[in-house]
Amino acid sequence: MNDTIDIQQTFWNSWNASTREKDVGEVSIDQRDVIISWLEGLGRTDLKIIEVGCGAGWLCEHLTRFGQVTATDLSHEVIARTAKRLPEVRFIPGDFMTLDVGGDYDVAISLEVLAHVADQQAFLAKIADLLKPGGRLMLGTQNAPALRMNDIPPPAQGQLRRWTDRHELAQLLGNRFDVSEMFSITPHFNRGLLRYVNAPRVRRLAEALGLGWLHRSIRHTQERMWLGWTIMSLATVRTAR
Questions:
Q1: Taking the model in full, what pTM does it have?
Q2: Spatial CA neighbour of 134 closest among 105, 110, 173
Q3: Which residues, 6 or more positions from 138, have their beta carbon under 8 angstroms from its beta carbon?
Q4: What confidence tens digit (pLDDT) does each residue in 46-92 have?
Q5: Residue ranges of the domains in the chain?
Q6: 119-175 pLDDT, tens per residue?
Q7: Rounded to whole angstroms, how far apart are CA atoms 229 and 188?
Q8: Which long-range contacts (CB under 8 A, 24 or more apart) does 1-6 make?
Q9: How much is the pLDDT for 132?
Q10: Which residue intervals define the domain Methyltransferase type in the entry (predicted)?
């Protein structure tokens, strides 16, 4: 492992330990619900699944009912703890770009990882190589226009960051995948008027006043306008012609 990867590993061990091992917030819960919906749509319980960038394994425990799960992450210290909690999952720590994680997967899942890799095209190409013909990629990544409407600290040492918008993501995926779905979810803001519109307390008040339908409509409108925090993409690996 080179020095650059060592620095990244230190950051992600610390970040996952202080964040994902303690709490899974609204953004992640919404991502999980989309992934589960897509998996349920396949109608199978014998899938061979790999999660690339599993962090503290918060999603893995929801994947096991669909088949055999392999998960990998740079955060080796966090994975060691998670493996004890989820012995039914095969965890492989290390730099995904240099790891041998097998192949012939039916499904590859990756949430909020693409923005944090040095070579996004190579990252997606390796995932494509892991999938069997007709295999699916279920991807969630930060939506650049929405995140730029938030106050977010600059990257810490060891934290790579390059957000994409939907057009950039479609171009990246288009080299190896056919995209069947792409949409944004979870409007989430910490400044401006939208901060108050999307606040949990405003949602609870709307529900209490019988106006939950209106709040949900406003939320869905933001998502359709590509103001969701996450871009979710469902794609099928393109077989050689």
A1: 0.93
A2: 105
A3: 34, 35, 38, 39, 107, 108, 109, 110, 232, 233, 234
A4: 999 999 999 999 999 999 999 999 999 999 999 999 999 999 999 99
A5: 3-187+230-237
A6: 999 999 999 999 999 999 999 999 999 999 999 999 999 999 999 999 999 999 999
A7: 6
A8: 1/94, 1/95, 4/118, 5/74, 5/95
A9: 97
A10: 51-138
Per-residue pLDDT reduced to its tens digit, 212-230: 888 889 989 999 999 999 9
Answer CATH for 3-187+230-237 from 3.40.50.150, 2.40.50.140, 3.40.50.300, 3.40.50.1220 = 3.40.50.150
Tokens of 94: 């290390």
Give me the residue label for tokens 């979810």.
185
Nearest to 231 by CA among 186, 188, 189, 183: 183
CA-CA-CA-CA torsion sign (128, 16, 31, 61): positive
